[in-house]
Structure prediction request, 81 residues.
Amino acid sequence: MKPGIHPEYRPVVFRDRSAGTAFLTRSTASPRATVTWEDGNEYPVVDVEISSASHPFWTGRARTADTEGRIARFERRYGKQ
Prediction:
């Protein structure tokens, strides 16, 4: 790897605004805002709209828009033959 061309990889806090949770991980993101973490150290913080804490797939609150199957809907529209 060439020296000096890669972004800095450091600890960053990702804060989920919709769920009110935050997690510390490593990233190349370089935000200007900082936050004091639970360990007393100050880390850069990235605010996100959705994460695994608020996404319907990961929380189990997924909505099913199609309650009727495709075949049943086809048969209802065009009738059984």
User: Anything to note?
Assistant: DSSP finds two helices and four strands in the chain. The first helix runs from residue 56 to 59. The CA atoms of residues 19 and 53 lie 6 Å apart.
